[in-house]
Design a protein that fits this description.
The chain is an alpha/beta fold. The chain contains 10 helices and 7 strands.
Length: 238
């Protein structure tokens, strides 16, 4: 079984669209777990109507961990509520994940976007994912992550971080040399709502700062985390 974990906070606009994508999958051996951080809109009702298990959440890292603790599957797929994908997507990523014996992986972005600047940004992001996948510093962008449950728990799950918890997980996995980290070459559609909120220039600037903060080991300091959250303008949709 595969456990799909979705952290939420007031995602009534996006969650129905994602749950529709999940319902239409050719792969059917899965459970859906919503880790909700006290939504005040109809998010929880939408999840319950779908038949998902709802557990308490928190910041995305904590929500994903709580979802994983409740999961029954030996594979975890963490998905942000604003993601979308085709009906064969889960079957496809599971196939490549298994064939390559990966432990942690991310898919690539669908670069098709009506605005040219976002199209080029997503193409650049895909190139970066591919370039870094075999290094000690692989991209672990958290919009959609697939991993083996045992490996995820063995490595200590997500750390209690507000920013870069996703890349931190992948860096720890790569540096441990116990786990195989990579990308699966199938596309999903990620929302550009954060890019639209803070702009591409600030995004590039922040990602560069975050990389160096991680490299020098200061990313976990509370003041550093709070600085990046402030620069981001808060959580994506939170």
């Amino acid at each position: 079984m595969v456990s799909i974990v979705i952290p939420t906070l007031n995602e009534e606009k996006y969650l129905p669209r994602l749950l529709k994508c999940i319902k239409e999958q050719s792969f059917t051996d899965f459970e859906v777990i919503i880790a909700d951080a006290n939504s005040t809109d109809s998010t929880i009702q939408i999840a319950q109507d779908f038949g998902a298990l709802v557990v308490g959440g928190g910041i995305p890292a904590i929500g994903r961990n709580k979802g994983a603790e409740a999961a029954k599957g030996d594979i975890l797929i963490f998905i942000d509520a604003d993601a979308m994908f085709g009906s064969e997507f889960i079957q496809q990523i599971l196939g490549e994940f298994s064939n390559r014996n990966l432990d942690f992986a991310i898919p690539i972005f669908n670069p098709e976007h009506p605005r040219l600047k976002y199209k080029f940004f997503l193409m650049w992001a895909n190139s970066y994912k591919k370039m870094m996948q075999n290094s000690y510093f692989p991209d672990g962008t958290g919009q959609l992550v697939i991993c083996k449950t045992a490996a995820f728990k063995d490595i200590g799950m997500y750390l209690d971080m507000q920013v870069a918890e996703d890349n931190n997980l992948f860096w720890r996995a790569a540096k441990s040399k116990k786990y195989k980290v990579g990308i699966v070459n199938f596309r999903f559609t990620s929302s550009t709502r954060r890019l639209e909120k803070i702009g591409l220039r600030r995004t590039f600037f922040l990602w560069s700062l975050i990389f160096w903060a991680m490299l020098f080991g200061v990313i976990r300091y509370a003041k550093v985390q709070n600085y990046f959250i402030k620069m981001y303008g808060g959580y994506k949709g939170w």
